[in-house]
């Protein structure tokens, strides 16, 4: 059941640095607002909010910012209404991408996403153009230093999870969407603190990038999309061959 997360090197290649903390705070604020609007302000009864609060506090987001986002979700503060929208497109090498945005201006978000694709050798597609290449899943993340891969696999089987993907940083329990919160409760009852509990996307098949220039272009587009103010999450169906990942790391270190 357990597997190795080949995204680990990719994550290291594009790790979010402290200089981007202001943008990270904005992402968490939007996520908190949306979570409260849909599920209420009680984190014990609202797993999406609980995940957002865990992440926000882990990044040392000020309490005033968190309180303001909660009040916005409750409708206690004036301001533009936030909407969730997903854009689709292709990166170099035929890599498919889903870009989840939370925005108060869909026209601006759409234009920004399209520009990022066009300027980075990609192409934005219409609704449904790449969504069929991904499946909706539940995702529960547990720090790798809290439990071994063997132990988390046994727990996942007992909890009814579909799969476990591990790397040196974390274990990810994969569930059916309608089983996400039942499995999350099971994990919590075993005194394991999940850092994220959310509905996610998983690629049905992946493309392995074996050309360093293509890999660099894909990561550049990924970063450009990730840097947009309205972007919340990006899902893509690529892996980077070990040799190419090592070459990219060497180029970044040089």
Describe the protein's topology.
Elements: E1 2-4, H1 8-13, H2 21-39, H3 47-58, H4 63-74, E2 83-91, E3 95-103, H5 106-119, E4 123-125, E5 134-143, H6 149-159, E6 163-166, E7 170-175, H7 180-189, E8 196-203, E9 207-209, H8 212-226, E10 231-236, E11 238-240, H9 242-253
Parallel strand pairs: 1-6, 9-11
Antiparallel strand pairs: 2-3, 2-4, 3-10, 5-7, 5-8, 6-7
Summarize the structure.
This protein is of the alpha+beta class and 254 residues long.
Structure description:
- There is one protein chain.
- The protein is of the alpha+beta class and 254 residues long.
- Among the domains are: 16-74, Arc Repressor Mutant, subunit A, CATH 1.10.10.200; 83-132 and 205-236, 2-Layer Sandwich (Alpha-Beta Plaits), CATH 3.30.70.
- It contains nine helices and eleven strands.
- The strands form three sheets. The chain has a five-stranded mixed β-sheet. Strands 4-2-3-10 form a four-stranded antiparallel β-sheet. The protein has a two-stranded parallel sheet with strand order 9-11.
- A hairpin with a 3-residue loop joins strand 2 and strand 3 (95-103).
- Helix 2 packs antiparallel against helix 3 (47-58) and helix 2 runs parallel beside helix 4 (63-74).
- It starts with a strand and ends with a helix.
